[in-house]
Write a structure and sequence with these properties.
634 residues; Ribosomal Protein S5, domain 2; Rossmann fold; 6-stranded mixed beta sheet; disordered C terminus
């Protein structure tokens, strides 16, 4: 039956500000509070910086200054040409307005749609912009995209360029704070891709003179590379390649200066071209896995009018270098087959090392082939009556399902039946799976991948995730370690982290691994219940509810009832992403925390151990047993 109440009055036209503020995810991805490096507040910074980078690429301005203020503002100053003074307001507040539609001026720019800066403006409670051109200055200020101050053009002695300052709207970005490490990592990527550019972040100088070679040098210990980094460059393309002793594949891909964290057509083309070139050079049809295992590489290309799969530009969708140009696949393949083959012919020692690495990988793969077959059979049999895995209905690998639904797929790795029982009863069976560990998993630091197939617990875990042959078949977008917040729980967390970092570092680098934050206390009275994750939150809760509040200390996940758990893993879930910044070397990290240097770790723990004195129980005077249990990992 027709809805007679559906009339012309139901039809609305939103102006650009309303639309951005109502649907911010369309423009900056997820909102977040700054704990994750892909949260929206970092996208806001990127949108402003992209304009400054484009100026540098066009040969204008060799320095960019960026500062964070104590009150949560970001200040960015470049020394490019400056926005034409008569168009300053239009460029930051009129949708689809900008200088990048003229392909002659910005032929291979990141942002071509004239949206990014306007989105920052609309999503900020305070937004200031000024431009300096040839001794003249134009200033304008906005709030939530609405012009609040329009200053006349004045004379100035400042250098040419553009200044932008903004404060994200706290009503949209709840309880946000900027993590300087995430910003610095973002800025280093800009530096690697723009050799010779100087970025000054809160007084610290960030600069690269060797491009992607510097990126790989800083991302790993050079001593652990099997051969010196191969650095190849040409018009519109740059690559850096090496192999290391770690498992997995490690890639850094960029398009027009944009870090494509989710890869795309260019990365797919590179991986295929690398295999084809190596096979052709050695004139042997080596297995793809043997060629690419342990590879560490970076690729940057410049594409005319790039097509990305979202406004946040994290995955390239273009198939051609330009509307009328060659395909990405043929362009990258031609570049590698020419440049890399020539390099290998001229550097026979490097070619021999690569050849040995491939054959070593081939031997190892064949050695454990029988073990893998038995392990797969055991895993398949276990799946029929697998008490360890309580699966969900929708998976990341279900390509026929909607992407938004697939990204919700989560697996909780729990310790023991009591914890998994509570989560199982409270979970959303559509998206949330449970994998139960039995006791403490093996410390697999320094072991070969053979041990994964021989150890039933670890084999079943990798089989549940479907990551044996890489992340292409990963079944869950979020892999969540859900251990107790006590010494044993922390130890189990370390052991699981070691497993992933040792054998599947890609899972961590690509942002799939998380730690479940569960409440330590429940503070309640007859009218209100508050859950507290820290000692500070507990004190604030008592102040709010009153000193007569009932306080419960949760010692383990199994003590939390299913009804309470439903709040923690659905509406109000707190997940801490496991993030590896540019300064962290996995080999060094694992050696320190999981190696044989027990006394060194124990001294570190003693030096950094803190107690809330009013909470220490009478029988906790002797902390030696606690320190020992935390320090020992064998």
């Amino acid at each position: 039956m027709a809805d007679l109440n559906y009339t012309e009055d139901n039809i609305r036209s939103l102006d650009w500000r309303e639309h951005i503020r109502m649907r911010p995810g369309m423009y900056i991805g997820k909102l977040g509070d700054g704990k994750s490096k892909d949260d929206g507040i970092y996208i806001l910074i990127k949108e402003i910086l992209d304009n400054s980078i484009d100026e540098f690429v066009m040969g204008n301005g060799k320095k960019i200054e960026i500062k964070t203020t104590e009150d949560g503002k970001i200040q960015i100053r470049d020394y490019g040409r400056g926005i034409p003074l008569g168009k300053v307001i239009d460029c930051v507040s009129k949708i689809n307005t900008g200088g990048k539609y003229d392909s002659k001026a910005f032929k291979k720019s990141v942002g071509l749609n004239g949206v990014g800066t306007k989105a920052v403006n609309a999503l900020s409670t305070y937004f200031e912009v000024y431009s300096v051109r040839e001794g003249q200055k134009k200033v304008a200020r906005f709030s939530k995209g609405v012009l609040t101050e329009d200053h006349e053009i004045t004379m100035t002695s400042e250098r040419n360029g553009t200044y932008t300052e903004f404060e994200p709207d706290p009503n949209i970005f709840k309880n946000y704070s900027f993590n300087p490490e995430y910003i610095e990592e973002q800025l280093w990527n800009y530096a690697y891709l723009n050799a010779g550019l100087t970025i000054v972040f809160n007084g610290t100088k960030i600069r690269s003179d060797n491009g992607l070679r510097d990126l790989l040098t800083n991302q790993t210990n050079v001593d652990q590379l099997l051969y010196p980094i191969i650095h190849l460059k040409d018009d519109d393309i740059e690559m850096a390649i090496s192999h290391c002793s770690a498992y997995g594949e490690e890639y850094y891909s960029f398009v027009n200066g944009q870090h494509t964290t989710q890869g795309g057509t260019h990365l797919m083309a590179f991986r295929e071209a690398l295999v084809a070139t190596i096979r052709n050079f050695f004139n042997k049809n080596y297995d793809v896995r043997d060629i690419r295992t342990s590879v560490i590489a970076a690729i940057s290309i410049k594409v005319e009018e790039p097509i990305f799969e979202s406004q946040t530009k994290t995955k390239l969708g273009s198939t051609h270098m330009s509307p009328d140009g060659p395909t990405l696949k043929s362009f990258i393949n031609d570049f590698l087959s020419n440049k890399l083959e020539n390099f290998l012919y001229r550097n026979t020692e490097v070619a021999e090392i690569i050849h040995k690495k491939i054959k070593q990988s081939e031997r190892e793969r064949k050695e454990i082939a029988g073990i893998k077959t038995l392990a797969r059979e055991k895993a398949k049999k276990a799946n029929v009556h697998n008490k360890k895995l309580r699966d969900c209905k929708i998976h990341l690998s279900d390509t026929k399902k909607d992407l938004e639904e697939r990204l919700k797929s989560t697996i909780f790795i729990t310790e023991g039946d009591s914890a998994s029982g509570s989560i199982t009863q409270a979970r959303d069976v559509r998206y949330q799976a449970i994998f139960s560990l039995r006791g403490k998993p093996l410390n697999c630091f320094g072991m070969s991948k053979k041990i994964v197939y021989q150890n039933e617990e670890l084999n079943l875990l990798q089989h549940a995730l479907k990551i044996e042959d890489g992340l292409d078949g990963l079944r869950y977008n979020q892999v969540v370690i859900a251990s107790d917040a006590d010494v044993d729980g922390m130890h189990i967390r370390l052991l699981i982290l070691t497993f992933f970092l040792q054998f599947f570092p890609d899972l961590v680098r690509e942002g799939h691994l998380y730690i479940l934050e569960t409440p330590l206390f429940r503070v309640r009275n007859k009218k209100e219940t508050l859950y507290c994750y820290t000692e500070e939150e507990r004190k604030l809760a008592i102040e709010k509810i009153g000193k007569n509040a009932e306080i419960t200390r949760f010692k383990g996940l199994g003590e939390i009832s299913p009804d309470e758990f439903e709040n923690f893993i659905n509406e109000n879930i707190r997940l801490a992403p496991v993030h590896l910044n540019n300064k962290i070397k996995i080999e060094d990290l694992l050696t320190y925390y999981m190696g044989k240097n027990t006394m060194e770790r124990q001294e570190f723990i003693i030096d950094n151990l803190r107690f809330e004195l009013d909470e220490v129980e009478e029988d906790s005077e002797d902390i030696a047993p606690l320190v020992e249990s935390m320090a020992l990992t064998e």
